């Protein structure tokens, strides 16, 4: 699915965040220590190789909502943005913290003068954020932030399952149509 949001192409696809070769920066749903793990962090660190953890060492720990950037090493991208999502039911106010992840990541990508960025559904795995609420927050945040972005031309959401893709698509239709 594709939308035009204030001159930025917004795409929703079903796929793997570690296999987006046409994107300059991919976002990692990181842990505070910026180490490998399960889910997105595991896929990104596996594909990037051990140098990614090394590069992360001096930047950790990060706070909930914060975003930092490193090289992407063996990934087919230039950079990885690492952001720490809220744990649902624990880190509060969770909606604001989740929005901050997207906002801070987008601003960081913009500062680095990059044209394209891909996001996973931050916090919706191990951190337990319900997918529909997370879709609403992430897509609304893109809508609100898009006007402030001059360099970024492509924002892609990479959803890992068909059902998450369907939820995102339905929410996007409401927000952007
Ligand atoms: P968090 O700890 O922020 O919840 P997870 O990595 O556990 O992060 O999960 C975030 C979301 O990413 C979940 O919806 C999960 O299904 C999805 N996911 C897991 N692996 C991948 C991948 N390789 N590419 C894209 N999304 C993924």
Describe this structure in words.
- This protein has 177 residues and is α/β, with parallel strands linked by helices.
- The chain has a single domain (2-176), classed as Leucine Aminopeptidase, subunit E, domain 1 (3-Layer(aba) Sandwich), CATH 3.40.220.10.
- It contains 5 helices and 7 strands, in the order E-E-E-H-H-E-E-H-E-H-E-H.
- It has helices at residues 39-48, 51-57, 94-111, 131-145, 162-176; strands spanning 2-5, 8-14, 25-29, 67-71, 79-83, 116-119, 154-159.
- A hairpin with a 2-residue loop joins strand 1 and strand 2.
- The longest helix is centred in the middle third of the chain and has 18 residues, at 94-111.
- It binds adenosine-5'-diphosphate.
């Amino acid at each position: 699915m594709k939308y035009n949001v204030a001159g930025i192409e917004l795409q929703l696809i079903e796929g793997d965040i570690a296999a987006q070769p046409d994107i300059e920066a991919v976002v990692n749903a990181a842990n505070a220590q910026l180490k490998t793990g399960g889910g997105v962090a595991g896929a990104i660190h596996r594909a990037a190789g051990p140098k990614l953890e090394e590069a992360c060492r001096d930047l950790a720990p990060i706070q909930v909502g914060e975003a930092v950037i490193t090289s992407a090493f063996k990934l087919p991208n230039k950079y990885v943005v690492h952001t720490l999502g809220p744990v649902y039911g624990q880190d509060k106010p969770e909606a604001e913290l989740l929005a901050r992840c997207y906002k801070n990541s987008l601003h960081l990508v913009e500062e680095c003068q990059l044209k394209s960025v891909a996001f996973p559904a931050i916090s919706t795995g191990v951190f337990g954020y319900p997918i529909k609420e997370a879709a609403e927050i992430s897509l609304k945040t893109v809508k609100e932030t898009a006007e402030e972005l001059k360099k970024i031309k492509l924002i892609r959401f990479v959803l890992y399952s068909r059902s998450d893709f369907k939820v995102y698509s339905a929410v996007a239709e409401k927000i952007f149509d």
